[in-house]
Design brief:
Layout lengths: L1 H7 L3 H22 L6 E7 L6 H11 L5 E7 L4 E7 L5 H10 L11 H4 L14
Antiparallel strand pairs: 1-3, 2-3
Length: about 130
């Protein structure tokens, strides 16, 4: 109805532009509504340096820098973390690489040596300093 009334008042050239603009709008709305839905995935890691509150705060601060991280749950007693993230914004490999860049030992794989030395001393047990 609106399209017909709007087209009656316009000359032929403007009618074509008017109809084309409406088609572009409808097409854009259709394509954005069909965008891939993101899934929330869970990544569980063993972080050796997660033995003190300082290590936990540093870890949580570093992981929350990444886009797509929903929640982080860290357990100091078990040295385990559970990270919920959106699969269309960040991948598990990107998360692990990001944490490794800050020196965290992930699943017995040591992180970057330079940044590892910058972590507080309370984050290391005698076994992890060897």
């Amino acid at each position: 109805m609106v399209l017909k009334n709007g087209c009656r008042r316009l000359n032929l050239k403007n009618r074509i532009l008017f109809i084309t603009s409406w088609l572009v709008i409808v097409l854009a709305l259709t394509l954005t509504s069909c965008e891939k839905e993101s899934k929330i995935l869970v990544l569980e890691l063993d972080i050796a340096e997660l033995i003190c509150m300082d290590g936990q705060k540093i870890f949580e601060g570093r992981i929350l820098e990444l886009a797509g991280i929903k929640t982080v749950s860290a357990n100091i007693q078990t040295h385990k973390v559970q990270i919920r993230y959106r699969d269309n914004q960040v991948s598990a490999a990107e998360i692990i690489a990001h944490l490794g860049d800050f020196g965290f030992t992930i699943d017995d794989v040591p992180g970057n040596e330079v940044t590892r030395g910058r972590l507080p001393q309370c984050c290391f047990t005698p076994q992890s300093q060897q």
